[in-house]
Design goal:
It contains three helices and four strands. The chain has about 100 residues and is of the alpha+beta class. Bound molecules: zinc ion.
Length: about 100
């Protein structure tokens, strides 16, 4: 049985263009309530990957209204224009 981290790494390796947390949850058939756990797992991936020569990149969440870029992977509300429609962060595994 593979760990959640291994399953996420395998999935990201199959998707060059990257995936959002929602897409990862959908593809791995996880409970949507596991969002926090998935994010925490993704944040721990870089350590596991160094040995394999892989790098985890995050395309940050972006406000759909003004384009504000967040630095953290999870965003719910734009600090600039108060917009709540936020484009999700995308995670990409690069060699
Ligand atoms: Zn905004």
């Amino acid at each position: 049985m593979k760990t959640l981290r291994e399953r996420i790494i395998d999935l990201l390796l199959e998707h060059d263009e990257g995936l959002t947390v929602s897409e990862i949850i959908y593809q791995l058939d996880l409970d949507p309530r596991m969002e926090k756990e998935v994010l925490a797992t993704i944040e721990k991936i870089p350590k596991a990957l160094k040995k394999k020569g892989l790098k985890l990149l995050m395309i940050p969440p972006r406000c759909k209204s003004c384009g504000f870029e967040f630095s953290k992977p999870k965003a719910t509300r734009c600090p600039k224009c108060k917009e709540q429609r936020i484009e999700e962060a995308v995670f990409v595994l690069k060699t």
